Amino acid sequence: MTKETKNTKPRTRRKAASPCGGKKKTVPAKKGWGKKLLSFSFKCTLVFVAVMAIWGIYLDSKIQERFDGQIWQLPAVVYGRILHLAPGEAVTIDTLKRELDILNYKRVRNPSRPGEYSASKTRVEIIRRPFEFEDGPEQAQHVMISFSGEGVQSLKQLDSGKQMGYLRIEPKLLGTMESNTDEQRIFLPRERFPEFLVDALLTTEDRDFYHHDGVAPLAIVRALVVNLKAGRTVQGGSTLTQQLAKNLFLTRDRTLWRKAQEAYIAVLLDYRYSKDRLLEAYLNEVYLGQARGKGVHGFPLGARLYFGRPIEELSIDQLALLVGIVKGPSYYNPWRYPERVQERRDLILRMMMESGVISSGQYAEAAARKLGIQKSPSINSRQPAYFEQLTREIRERVGSQFNPESGLRVFSTLDPLSQSIIDKTVVKKVDQLKKVAGKNLEAAVVIADRQSGEIRAMVGGSRPGYAGFNRALNGSRQIGSLSKPAVYLAALSDPDKYNLASPLDDKPIVLKGNQGSEWKPRNYDRKFRDQVPLLKALANSYNIPTVNLGLAIGLGTVIDTYEELGVDPDQITRVPSLLLGAFTLTPMEVTQMFQTIASGGRKANLTALRAVVARDGQVLYRNWPKSSQTVSEQASWLTMYAMKEVVRSGTGRYLNSSFGWAGLAGKTGTTDNNRDSWYVGIDGREVVTVWLGRDDNTSTKLTGSSGALRLYADYIKARQPEPLTLNWPSELASVPYQVREGQFVTDCFSESKLPMWDPKGHWRKRCDKPDPVSWLQSIFN
User: Fold this and answer.
1) Residue 128 belongs to a domain with what CATH number?
2) What confidence category does residue 664 fall into, taking pLDDT thresholds of 50, 70 and 90?
3) Which long-range contacts (CB under 8 A, 24 or more apart) does 627-630 make?
4) Is residue 481 domain-shared with residue 608, that is, in the same domain?
5) Angstrom distance (rounded) from CA 648 to CA 665
């Protein structure tokens, strides 16, 4: 057979023989497509489950990391000074009522809840709010405060009937320190939220919150059907847990992928944490609007934004309004859409009535009320000048422990009443003075406690609420006649040579410099009086007697006195013109100088910071008011006596007609060409430094008396001064005198008396048992 023929034969497939001799094996046919699809789906499911498990583990770790640590970057919250009340304190009933009004206490007939008070002519009944002070929390206290003409008479706790030694009124919330976050909130634990707020929130937003596992499938389906029928999104199916998951971990993108993540995180949150813990987080996280360009989150801060009061004190209609805003803070803006907001509020109140939370009577009463919101959205009235000083001190004294986003509580020394009044006074008075001074008139004010040196208020410009160049801290200007009290104090520190009756020359003088220059000081009124007593020279701010006195005691002695008063001597040039204030200081530095004089020579470093407390209650810094005797008590007392004469009969006498009863002290200051107008006013409570001028250093046409003094007068009229009483120091004698031809003459039989520092008893001996010869000599002396 040929090869070709062999290849043409058909090939047959042999079946393999069974090794056991049984039936022969058949080769299985290929798998069908259904089985392949099932296998593929099974494998994909395994992969999906694995991916979801890994993703869930990752998300769970992120959730725990945030929830078990610090959920939010909480800003440092700043409070004002704490008002201390005790029997004998010089706090009047009007002052207390104004303080309570600033703190948004509600005046009622019969106080029944924290944040309420009633008042009569001599008594105030108050339920002091609970508050966590720097040294620990205090519960609400129901107290009756009785007043006499001199101040607080007694404190009585009404719950127990016991007399109290003191009572602290909680400080005003001033605001928060600047931080890098665009959110602001005040954290509050779950148990401190009103139950009505919680009930209203759950009723309107998530009725099954305590029953579902983070998501509510039926609610999602129901919302989907409603939205499909409407052709747009009109109803959401998210639970509070899903909303919390979105706010804390996700963006606001409306995508299915974001929705899936939201649901997954919600399930994990619900599995990991209790319902109350999640509700607490939501109550502090929910977005409720904007304030000063930053988001307001959480009901506690929302209550202050819309009502200016703590959340615990809001009525049911106000709480319902807050819950209504949750749906859309822009859409339900009560200042822009009051009718829309009232309709939403009343709907929530009706739902609460239908669910049995409130009665029909409560509903009718609440729905009849007005919205009751503040005039404008505000959490606080910022004091940028004061906050600048506060920030400086915090960074200096707390250092690396200060983090403006770690929830610190900062207790300052700011007096909200003084700050509020000076803010309004500056705006109003500067506007009036511009009619004389022209446009661009600026102002700066520093107010400090006379004894402790604690800064009570600060204004850095003519618009107190706006940040900018802080003239109170950084505006260094010539001080003019404000320098004179230091010169006279230096002289009075040497009682063997000088006293208030010492005659000073008031004659033309010419001082020559090293290079042939001449300086001819002159009095403001261009007059000369031959000689004037030291007391009159200071009271009327005469220049030539001051120069003669300063040269007599020595420039070095004067500069040393400035240093003892708290002024950096390096800022003072050793030339005779320093005696008339030809050197520059800031209003802050001027206040330090006069605080030392006003407190009897005890210098207390000015401070705005009282305490810094960490979120866990640890006190990071606490300032205990302290002072040191840097200049003579007797010389300071005599200088203050002379500054009282400034108000009684000198350059500050504008005040005497209205406040003669208060015994105020003060000193005017005017620089060349009326560039700077100064006044320092002192009452029993505060030292107030006022400066008026222009940033370009041109004339204001204002003297200290016609400018800064008038601003101070308006302030003290609104603030009401505390009488300035000076405790009589040792070694001071009251010496009888007469005034003859403008001179003080010793006259032991006169009813008029002048205080003298008499360490060796010479003045007392002169009039204790006067003999006829010495009496005649005193007349002709």
Assistant:
1) 3.30.2060.10
2) very high
3) 627/451, 627/452, 627/453, 627/599, 627/602, 627/603, 628/602, 628/603, 629/601, 629/602, 629/603, 630/564, 630/565, 630/566, 630/596, 630/601, 630/602, 630/603
4) yes
5) 9
Cα three-residue angle 724-728-734, rounded to 5 degrees? 110
Quick check: is 219 in a domain?
yes
How many H helices and E strands in the chain?
Answer: 25, 33
Q: Crossing angle, helix 484-492 and helix 587-598, to 10 degrees?
A: 30
pLDDT given for residue 232 in this prediction: 53
CATH number at residue 217: 1.10.3810.10
- Asked whether residue 247 falls in the same domain as residue 157, the answer is no
Is residue 650 predicted with pLDDT exceeding 90?
A: yes
Structure tokens at 254: 């409306």
3-state helix, strand, coil in the chain (%, to 5): 40, 20, 40
d(CA 693, CA 473): 15
215 shares a domain with 166: no
pLDDT digits (tens, 9 = 90+) for 250-308: 777 767 777 777 788 888 888 888 999 999 999 999 999 988 778 899 999 999 999 98
481 is catalytic: yes
Q: Is pLDDT of 375 > 80? A: yes
User: Are 638 and 536 found together in one domain?
Assistant: yes
CATH of residue 495's domain is 3.40.710.10
Q: Give the residue-averaged pLDDT of 390-404.
A: 85
Q: How many residues appear in the chain?
A: 781
Amino acid at 414: L
Predicted local confidence at residue 612, as pLDDT: 94
Q: Which of 99, 116, 205, 633 is catalytic?
A: 205
Residue 645 reports pLDDT greater than 90 = yes
The tokens describing 624, both together, are 């205990």
Task: Report the pLDDT value the prediction gives residue 779, as an integer from 0 to 100.
Answer: 45
pLDDT digits (tens, 9 = 90+) for 153-179: 999 999 999 999 999 999 999 988 776
For the chain, the domain total comes to: 4
Phi-psi region at 115: left, alpha or beta (left = phi > 0; alpha = psi -120 to 50): left
Residues 458 and 605 in one domain: yes
Give the C-alpha separation, 414 to 444, whole Å.
16
Q: Are residues 118 and 145 both part of a single domain?
A: yes
- Please determine, for residue 13, whether its predicted confidence score (pLDDT) is greater than 50: no
**Residue 205 annotated as catalytic:** yes
Asked, for residue 410, whether it belongs to a domain, the answer is no
State residue 180's pLDDT score.
62
Nearest-angstrom CA–CA distance, 487 and 287: 60
Domain identity same for 587 and 513: yes
Identify the domain containing residue 505 by its residue range.
425-464+471-719
Tell me, yes or no, whether 249 and 160 share the same domain: no
Please give the mean pLDDT across all residues of the chain.
87
Could you tell me the pTM of the whole model? 0.84
pLDDT of residue 24: 52
What 3-state class would DSSP assign to 536? Answer: helix
pLDDT of residue 19: 45
DSSP calls for 652-699: TGGGHHHHGGGT-EEEEEE-GGG-EEEEEEE-SSEEEEEEEE-TT---
635, 633, 610, 629: which is closest to 620 by C-alpha?
610
Q: Kindly report the CA angle at 348 between 343 and 352, in degrees rounded to 5?
A: 145
Residue-wise burial string across 648-662, b where 16 or more C-beta atoms lie within 10 A, e elsewhere:
bebbbbbbbeebeeb
Catalytic residue among 452, 462, 481, 541: 481
End-to-end CA distance of the chain: 172
Distance CA 158, CA 526 (A): 66
Confidence of residue 229 (pLDDT cuts 50, 70, 90): low
- pLDDT tier for residue 549 given thresholds of 50, 70 and 90: very high
